[in-house]
Amino acid sequence: MKLALLSRAPQSYSTGRLRQAAEDRGHEVRVLNTLRFGIDLAGGVPDLRYRGSQLSDYDAILPRIGNSITYFGTAVVRQFEQMDVYTPNTSNGITNSRDKLRASQILARHGIGMPETAFVRNRADVKPAIESVGGAPVVIKLLEGTQGVGVILAPQVKVAEAIIETLHSTNQNVLIQRFVQESAGRDIRALVVGDRVVAAMRRTAAGDEFRSNVHRGGSVEAVKLDAAYEEAAVRSAQIMGLRVAGVDMLEGDEGPLVMEVNSSPGLEGIERATGLDVAGAIIDFISNQVAFPEIDVRQRLSVSTGYGVAELQVHAGAELIGKTLGDSGLWERDITVLTLHRGVQVIPNPRKHVVLEDDDRLLCFGKLEEMRSLIPARSARRQRIHKLPKDALDEYGDAASSTEDL
Length: 406
Ligand code: ADP
Ligand code: MG
Fold this sequence. Notes:
By secondary structure, the protein is of the alpha+beta class. The chain has helices at 13-24, 70-82, 91-98, 100-108, 123-132, 157-169, 227-240, 268-274, 278-289, 297-301, 368-372, 380-386, 397-402; strands at residues 2-6, 28-32, 37-40, 47-50, 53-54, 60-63, 117-118, 138-142, 151-154, 174-178, 186-193, 196-204, 219-222, 244-252, 255-262, 307-313, 335-342, 345-348, 361-367. It folds into 4 domains: 2-97, 3-Layer(aba) Sandwich (Rossmann fold), CATH 3.40.50.20; 116-179, Dna Ligase, domain 1, CATH 3.30.1490.20; 183-291, D-amino Acid Aminotransferase, Chain A, domain 1; 297-405, Regulator of K+ conductance, C-terminal domain (Alpha-Beta Plaits), CATH 3.30.70.1450. Adenosine-5'-diphosphate binds at residues 115, 139, 141, 145-149, 151, 177-180, 183-184, 187, 210-213, 248, 250, 259-260. Magnesium ion is lined by residues 213, 248, 260.
């Protein structure tokens, strides 16, 4: 295959190893500076320029987009997606994982274990938020920090409040997170490629530091992960839309607590700690996937008028429970079931003999009109909000109403 490594650090350990691994396997590989692309929107077909000239054809890219150029970098990756060039990490995946809040919001709905986290903005809400995650000591995080910068451990509620207020006053948003004491100074980095963990290490912080990042002087050792950790890592990467990812997990008393998912994980620490050829695993994975460029299924499938994708949930008491998919009547209504989600399990292309259970979720493609009738009215929770007494809304105050879109 012909592969482009999108990187601004051609001399770095990771880029060097990836390039070497690709060459060793007989692939054609080039390191392209992400910032030298130009997105060409003039013609009828999506195109890219590199250093002012038309870019030649590539089979795949591996984006290594640094934090400082997320916006431009993901725009370049998105353009490659439009050109049907395979990328293991999509522009959406990179954007979602980069912001710690956005990542946590997405992971939370899929039942991934995470440290209790709160996000507030009003001064009056800060103290209750700190209490809600367990009080002091408490961790405060900038949304887009990396390498441990922007992660603070506040020993007392008063100090935490002062730090958060200061950051808010400079227009910085922060996460308030339970300090996972039992894992203080120690965490797990799992390197996920495709649907497996190819290498894992434990990082231990230096001295009395609580952050175990290698850039903060943390030391590393290889570990064999329990199944629960492997599963949390692989599912987190998949949910984020990343096929190459470094998943950071704290070792909680009850099991893994995912902190973040990195879309450009460094390879030096993990290869040294484990002695494994992680770069080779990444290249092998890409070359196996090249035939399947990332496509936006929803966008493509919605092109036929009146058809689209929707997720149908089987609810308690619904007449579907106990029926087989074949007897569910869905096919008769022009609805095809693509996947069945049951708890943490996913059944692709479920067969007609599968019996439906309470809480199953069916990802379907079909006639929107038919599917609409199967989607229950918005949940009670949402209705409750509409029914709040008037005085419960008073605290929105004037500031909110003056920005209302009237
Ligand atoms: P960064 O993106 O800067 O690496 P992380 O969220 O991964 O930010 O945090 C950096 C390090 O701080 C982690 O590797 C971990 O050692 C420590 N840490 C972060 N959050 C917590 C927490 N809630 N409890 C205990 N330690 C934490
Ligand atoms: Mg981290």
